[in-house]
Amino acid sequence: MPISIESIDDYVSRYWDEHIVPSLVEYIKIPALSVDFDPDWAASGFLDQAKDLAVRWIRQHAPAEWTLHDQSLPGRTPLLLIEVPGQSNETFLLYGHLDKQPEMEGWWDGFGPWTPIIKDQKLYGRGGADDGYALFASIAALKALAEQGLPHPRIV
Prior knowledge:
alpha+beta; globular; 38% helix
């Protein structure tokens, strides 16, 4: 089946604006620092908050044939694994993370790391462009392939 780049672009753009940006706005509000920068990460609970947001979003948007594994173990940072059946014997890995780097300095007046702001169609805030979007973007891409009826390998 031929690929319609225009249709995929339209689908992903619509999906991004309607379903992903609102979730990224909520994700940015969570100061879920990497364990290298938050040694009390388990007590703060921010990584769990980010994981819980992701789990809710996945359950709302993933097709029934996808399997979500929540590998939250005591003393270990959360791990989410999604298995997406494919139409070939190959397996592709898509990776992202939900922890963030420190807030740093130098934010413009009125902007801050945990305050999401949309200006000129750009979303500002910590984590929204530092791989925090990877989960959402991966699912949007896979749903766009399904929308086009295009085959793909198994994805984890």
